[in-house]
């Protein structure tokens, strides 16, 4: 049951990820390359190649003088990961470097994209002949690092090798010694169309694009020599690629790729870096050293330079060239000549994120269990999970993107990325900690022959990570002082009509922007700013800007407001009640403390109680309200009395004494302040300011017994124990909500999701709060979420991926668990698992949640979810997480509600309830309907209960209206209790004891799911079995007469052995 030690897990990961170069695979590679060489060898020389081979491409790169006579390539050699023996799945491709013949080019073809055009036309001829080979199944276009002007050929062989899927060979042209290198240095202009009136403009990106082809063979040979017979270095390369690929924002055209990772490791081996590695180091040590270098090295400021072999003094000309190169690019990796920067595509923002991610990964290794193995190598850190706000820009057909042509120094899509990044940095200012813009605009199976006009179909992705929420959600941005004319004019030009001159409290008159919204809408401020800035400066309609911010708010609101807005009034009423309780002096023992227990007080209730006009106060119903609820949702409040030695020792007598105190407290509140109170033995419901407060007493002896006896607290009153646990939980969650304001909305979404999929009975409110708390307290490899949708996605993924069978989940909210506590928790966990193994029972608890107040997981998950329920939960969470991920990165605005629609055909039978008899019909998200299966029962709605006081009731006197109010009445819960108790026993005892499980939505659902618990006997034939099942379901309907609308049988129980 113990987790494997780290070295074994790392070795297993490398073994699974690295492609084994088996004889059969090597044979397939050799045969494929041989076939390619044969086809190319048969292409006749002197074919006249013109732009007619690809007129669209030649037109869009803006080239001229592209005609040439075909000559066979000078050489074809393997390169890339295959050449050093470390291909990492699932991308199984072999690169072959095809050296272009010098005879096909003129010495000035480095100008004005002529090289790029001829390069592509040369590949077109190759492709035409390769397509005729029967040994090759498919030949298609791809490109190098999303650079459309540098396509490559991808060839799929007709034959396959077992366990190797989607194998391909990529033909990458090289241009060794094709042009004069000084003509392509970073300070020269080689694209005349980008020159401005003021003079010549350097084209460093364009020049580097050509130099890349000229130097790729040289660096490939260098890396082959370094990786030769160094197994642990190769294994470290595998780990680095796994790490980077799990972080999709890093593994992109403007940051890392497999080639650059190999270059980086090669640099750290060489003496020029100081030799960071030695051959005694294992793969994990090399991995850590590499990340530390990425995150913390000062060498990046100077640039990484591969020194020449032997003694070599850097001459002044080379030093000057290197400095020029540094000025042109944010990051430099080059050889000593500084002729070519291998990192020319890396942007400043992507490198900053790379350094931040490397630093976070080092924290994972240092702080997380098992050296952070799961967080570093197994956790998916994609766009939706990494960023607090994800945005999509639909730029299809937007002429401004390519207004200056598709290709200048850089491609228009990269320039658009830079412009959007700059706009958002300025617009969001200190609200955003990080802004990431990526446009992966090369679609699959793209026909680049036709040109670039269709390369805007894919959306541009933006990720925004917030800093302080206080800054991120502020309502006013203060700009320059009105006296500073130039700065004020720039401010007004940027913000347009949103800019306004305002006088502030300190007397300052300054430009400003105001983002007016209600308190519960502040998470939309980032969306409003983004939409305004991008609409204004990119001339985009708002329909083309999709910001993930409020798409799930529909699940928490009804009407035009979020009921969380009622919490302020609830807290005010609670403060009044708390003060009055402490002032009571006519009860035998004074009240020493008052503590709220309900989730509504800690902002984690999906639907906090709405103030009721008849609950306390004047009892006047506003004329604007045509109806009022019949039921009032109470909120629990715990009180403690001052100490006394006169309490009885007997548990029953103690409870009776507490009941007497409750009655007396109710009388005192009525006598002193005329407050309406409803008293029972279980507690007193105090009606105040529209709310119902249910008071419960915690007995001091019960509290001390719980503290002293810990897990042996069975002698303690179960009521006191539960109250103590709830009070501890409430205090801790309250503190957590204060530290992380976004925690509450994430919990509410999680609760709504669980209820919507009918998991209310098996995953309690407190358990969900703890699960979400863990994500905020242990966010690595992320930062704590700062938006509700990101937090919700992480919750779904965590619920589906955590290893519940073999690992306890420890939630240390206040950071006060010691090593001894951790040992004790582990002993409880192991004891629970051993007990289940010995008795062959189901795991209990299946979801082990340990806290400082509950180290044995008895409080919230002792009996549920069961292993089967947890398996179902994880499956639903996985499906929802996948859907939510797609919704964030794709453009499908109509499917968000599917996250909260549960498929009723996943149940064996379904009970549909009368919607107009639900206690809170307004909480219902989607009405349920069944069109499958057999309807076995139907019923009319009862006339004894209505969820609202109608217009006729409103006309009656106040006393009559108040008599119709019910506190804590919920027909759904009453019905479920009846079903699980004895109401249908007479129907079940004859044939199906404990026949079914019930699945419900306690937050307003109108459907109850039924699943059969075990197969029936084979002796019973199917017809009788079906008949008996229908009898059971009819009994279930009879138990809910007046509340049940219909019952549908979808699947009969399976026959057993």
From TrEMBL:
Record GO terms (molecular function): RNA binding
InterPro entries assigned: NOL6/Upt22, Nrap_D1, Nrap_D2, Nrap_D3, Nrap_D4, Nrap_D5, Nrap_D6
Chain ranges of the Nrap protein domain: 94-226, 234-380, 385-539, 569-737, 740-901, 904-1025
GO cellular component: CURI complex; small-subunit processome; UTP-C complex
Localization of this protein: Nucleus, Nucleolus
Biological process annotations from GO: rRNA processing; tRNA export from nucleus
Keywords from the named record: Nucleus, RNA-binding
Sequence similarity: Belongs to the NRAP family.
PANTHER family attached to this UniProt entry: NUCLEOLAR PROTEIN 6, NUCLEOLAR RNA-ASSOCIATED PROTEIN
The name this protein goes by in its record: Nucleolar protein 6
Organism from which the protein derives: Carnegiea gigantea
């Amino acid at each position: 049951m113990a987790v494997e030690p780290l070295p074994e897990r790392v070795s297993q990961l490398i073994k699974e990820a690295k492609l084994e170069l088996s004889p059969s695979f090597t044979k397939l590679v050799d045969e494929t390359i041989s076939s390619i060489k044969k086809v190319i060898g048969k292409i006749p020389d002197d074919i006249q190649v013109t732009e007619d081979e690809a007129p669209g491409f030649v037109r869009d790169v803006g080239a001229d003088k592209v005609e040439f006579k075909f000559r066979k390539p000078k050489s074809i050699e393997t390169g890339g990961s295959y050449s050093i023996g470390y291909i990492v799945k699932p991308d199984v491709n072999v690169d072959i470097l095809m050296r272009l013949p010098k005879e096909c080019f003129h010495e000035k073809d480095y100008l004005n994209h002529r090289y790029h055009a001829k390069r592509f036309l040369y590949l077109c001829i190759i492709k035409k002949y390769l397509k005729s080979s029967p040994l090759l199944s498919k030949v298609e276009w791809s490109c190098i690092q999303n650079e459309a002007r540098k396509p490559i050929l991808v060839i799929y062989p007709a034959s396959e090798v077992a366990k190797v899927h989607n194998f391909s060979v990529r033909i990458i042209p090289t241009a060794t010694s094709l042009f004069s290198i000084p003509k392509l240095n970073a300070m020269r202009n080689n694209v005349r169309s980008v020159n401005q009136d003021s003079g010549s403009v350097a084209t460093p990106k364009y020049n580097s694009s050509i130099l890349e082809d000229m130097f790729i063979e040289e660096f490939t040979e260098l890396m082959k020599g370094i990786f030769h017979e160094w197994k642990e270095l190769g294994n470290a390369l595998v780990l680095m690629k796994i790490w980077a690929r799990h972080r999709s924002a890093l593994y992109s055209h403007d940051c890392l790729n497999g080639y650059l990772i190999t270059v980086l490791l090669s640099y750290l081996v060489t003496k020029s870096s100081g030799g960071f590695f030695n051959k005694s180091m294992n793969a994990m040590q090399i991995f850590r050293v590499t990340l530390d270098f990425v995150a913390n090295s000062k060498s990046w400021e100077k640039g990484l330079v591969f020194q020449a072999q032997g003694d070599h003094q850097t001459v002044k000309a080379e030093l000057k060239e290197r400095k020029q190169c540094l000025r042109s690019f944010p990051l430099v990796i080059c050889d000593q000549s500084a002729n070519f920067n291998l990192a020319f595509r890396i942007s400043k923002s992507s490198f900053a994120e790379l350094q931040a991610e490397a630093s976070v990964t080092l924290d994972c290794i240092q702080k997380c269990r098992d050296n952070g193995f799961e967080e570093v190598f197994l956790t998916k850190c994609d766009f939706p999970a990494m960023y607090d706000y994800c945005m999509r820009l639909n730029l299809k057909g937007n002429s401004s993107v390519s207004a200056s042509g598709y290709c200048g120094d850089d491609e228009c899509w990269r320039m658009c990325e830079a412009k959007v990044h700059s706009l958002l940095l300025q617009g969001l200012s200190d609200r955003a900690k990080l802004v990431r813009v990526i446009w992966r605009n090369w679609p699959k199976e793209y026909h680049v022959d036709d040109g670039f006009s269709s390369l805007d179909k894919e959306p541009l992705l933006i990720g925004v990570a917030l800093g302080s929420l206080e800054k991120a959600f502020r309502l006013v941005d203060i700009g320059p002082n009105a006296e500073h004319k130039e700065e004020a004019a720039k401010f007004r030009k940027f913000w347009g009509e949103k800019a306004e001159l305002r006088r502030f409290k300190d007397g300052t008159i300054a430009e400003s922007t105001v983002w007016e919204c209600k308190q519960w809408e502040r998470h939309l401020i980032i969306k409003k700013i983004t939409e305004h800035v991008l609409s204004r400066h990119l001339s985009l309609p708002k329909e083309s800007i999709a910001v993930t911010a409020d798409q799930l708010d529909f699940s928490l609101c009804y009407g035009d407001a979020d009921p969380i807005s009622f919490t302020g009034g609830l807290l005010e009423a609670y403060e009044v009640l708390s003060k009055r309780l402490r002032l009571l002096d006519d009860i035998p023992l004074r009240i020493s403390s008052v503590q709220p227990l309900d989730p509504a007080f800690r902002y984690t209730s999906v639907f906090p109680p709405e103030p009721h006009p008849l609950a306390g106060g004047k009892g006047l119903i506003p004329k604007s309200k045509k109806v009022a609820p019949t039921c009032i949702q109470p909120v629990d409040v715990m009180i403690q009395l001052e100490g006394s030695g006169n309490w009885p020792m007997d548990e029953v007598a103690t409870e009776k004494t507490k009941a007497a105190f409750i009655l007396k407290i109710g009388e005192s509140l009525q006598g002193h302040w005329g407050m309406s109170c409803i008293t029972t033995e279980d507690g007193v419901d105090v009606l105040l300011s529209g709310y119902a407060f249910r008071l419960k007493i915690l007995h001091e002896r019960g509290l001390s017994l719980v503290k002293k006896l810990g897990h042996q607290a069975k002698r303690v009153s179960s009521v006191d124990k539960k109250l103590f646990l709830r009070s501890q939980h409430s205090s801790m969650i309250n503190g957590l909500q204060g530290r992380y304001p976004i925690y509450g909305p994430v919990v509410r979404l999680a609760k709504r999701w669980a209820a919507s999929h009918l998991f209310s009975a098996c995953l309690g409110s407190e358990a969900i709060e703890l699960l979400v708390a863990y994500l905020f307290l242990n966010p690595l490899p992320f930062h704590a979420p700062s938006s509700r949708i990101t937090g919700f996605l992480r919750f779904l993924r965590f619920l589906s991926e955590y290893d519940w069978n073999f690992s306890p989940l420890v939630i240390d909210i206040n950071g006060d668990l010691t090593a001894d506590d951790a040992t004790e928790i582990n002993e409880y966990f192991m004891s629970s698992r051993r007990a289940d193994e010995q008795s062959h029972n189901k795991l209990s608890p299946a979801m082990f949640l340990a806290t400082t107040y509950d180290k044995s997981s008895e409080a919230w998950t002792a009996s549920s979810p069961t292993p089967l329920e947890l398996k179902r939960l994880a499956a639903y969470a996985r499906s929802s997480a996948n859907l939510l991920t797609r919704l964030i990165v794709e453009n499908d605005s109509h499917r968000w509600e599917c996250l909260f629609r549960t498929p009723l055909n996943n149940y064996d039978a379904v009970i549909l309830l009368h919607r107009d008899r639900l206690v809170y019909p307004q909480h219902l998200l989607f009405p349920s309907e069944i069109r499958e299966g057999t309807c076995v029962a139907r019923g009319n709605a009862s006339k004894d209960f209505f969820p609202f006081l109608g217009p006729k009731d409103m006309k009656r006197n106040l006393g009559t209206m108040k008599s119709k109010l019910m506190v804590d009445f919920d027909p759904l819960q009453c019905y479920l209790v009846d079903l699980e108790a004895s109401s249908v026993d007479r129907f079940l005892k004859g044939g199906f004891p404990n026949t079914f499980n019930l699945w419900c939505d306690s937050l307003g659902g109108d459907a109850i799911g039924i699943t059969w618990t075990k197969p029936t006997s084979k002796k019973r034939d199917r017809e009788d079995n079906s008949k008996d099942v229908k009898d059971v379901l009819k009994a279930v309907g009879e138990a809910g007469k007046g509340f049940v609308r219909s019952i549908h049988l979808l699947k009969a129980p399976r026959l057993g052995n």
